[in-house]
Amino acid sequence: xxxxxxxxxxxxxxxxxxFQGQTLEVLQDIDLSIKNQEIVSIIGPSGCGKSxxxxxxxxxxxxxxxxxxxxxxxxxxxxGSVSYMQQKDLLFPWRTVLENISLSxxxxxxxxxxxxxxxxxxxxxxxxxxxxxxxxxxxxxxxxQRVAFLRTLLTDSxxxxxxxxxxxxxxxxxxxxxxxxxxxxxxxxRTVVLVTHDVEEAIFLSDxxxxxxxxxxxxxxxxxxxxxxxxxxxxxxxxxxxSLKLRLLDRLNEGGDE
Amino acid sequence: MNKxxxxxxxxxxxxVLSVFVLWEILVHIQDIPTWLLPAPSEIFKSLYxxxxxxxxxxxxxxxxxxxxxxVALIFGFLIASGIxxxxxxxxxxxxxxxxxxxxxxxxxxxxxxxxxxxxxxxxIIVVALISFFPIVVNTADGMxxxxxxxxxxxxxxxxxxxxxxxxxxxxxxxxxxxxxxRIAVSISVIGAVIxxxxxxxxxxxxxxIRSKPQFHTELVFAAIFILSAIGIGLFLLxxxxxxxxxxxxxxxxxxx
Lengths: 258, 256
Ligand SMILES: Nc1ncnc2c1ncn2[C@@H]1O[C@H](COP(=O)(O)OP(=O)(O)OP(=O)(O)O)[C@@H](O)[C@H]1O
Ligand SMILES: [Mg+2]
Prior knowledge:
heterodimer; A: alpha/beta; Rossmann fold; B: MetI-like fold; 2 domains; binds adenosine-5'-triphosphate
């Protein structure tokens, strides 16, 4: 198989970071190929380099060794070609909810007025319509995260990188968002790399799960998730779901004990 | 809300009133002549009786303050933007700005008179020079203080430098700009008076200079009274505008 079938190909990526005069090996020999429209989750212990990996894919950082290619083309300059939701929500305090969401459209050169118009129709789906004129400091943590999520979705790139996008949400909101998000991807497929701490979330949403080891992060385990789409919540009780979940949790704990 | 504000300002009103009362009593007990130190009642009388004259001169001074301040604001913002956008500009402009600040305005003002002559312009320049520094330094600090992660967010969206400047640098600099402006408006009043002292035929500074040798000390104090009122008024106006323009700024740090 040629590499061109892959939307994202990460080859032998190494990343060191300088921290207080010491060189930390953060990522080691990461080899990862992600197919077009595939949804891949990355899980692993805190500090193992998940965010660093997303930063590298997004182009905010460059690997010390190895290469990143999109659709078979080596991609030195990746900024602007992926939608990236970082771990911090990074809402602009001087912009209203609506203006925050429309940020990427403005960057693309659409006028502020038009971008706001385009974004307005998504607000009700996120129960944010009553808050469109609010400034971020008046929002709860969960609301801020939904605003950041929506802002990322509206950054309309083929590749979507999500760093713990649902971490601040309550269980119910989170479940509704899973379903909403999967429906959205069904109608408008994109390639997704999702970092999460929640094993159930990873299984529920993704086609494949990558487990990274403790720092230096290496690919420790890859699991395919074969549940049919569209998925419903009952799969949580499915024996395959449960056994996969236990297997992943086991390996996660092993990594944590070292 | 309004009631609270009123209650908050009771202490300062009380202090001002007691100073006036003590002053009045002192002048009467010691029998101090008006040309030496006028009692507050004399000052208020002068404010009332000389109102037309005072008003005319106030308009002149106010005009100098406002125009000079606006010039400082525009140039201050432009230069601060240059400093924010380019490290080269920052390095080359800062020494110049600081030396500009260390030249005593008292020395510059008479020179301006020699170079430009009488009229409005030299006063505007003095006001602008004196209020320029706090504006430019604060605003430049604000431009430099931008949240690096916000910048990285815009970079992932494919933003160019100009967009980063407009969408992050300018808004982040506004709270800093306002604290610079707050300092600038108060000292711009001083600038106008200095500008008038070295040579003019109108304005409150001129009125003071002229009234003193004529022993119209109450008029001098009336002018001082108006000047402080202008200072306080501008200061309050800036505070009001700040709340209006950047309502988010007081919460910025609590939203991390
Ligand atoms: N700016 C930085 N400078 C130096 N070291 C850093 C920096 N940011 C992160 N690190 C280090 O790099 C390692 C990987 O960080 P990263 O944020 O990628 O971890 P993570 O897997 O996303 O963790 P978490 O699950 O807690 O978000 C960490 O051990 C951290 O100590
Ligand atoms: Mg992280």
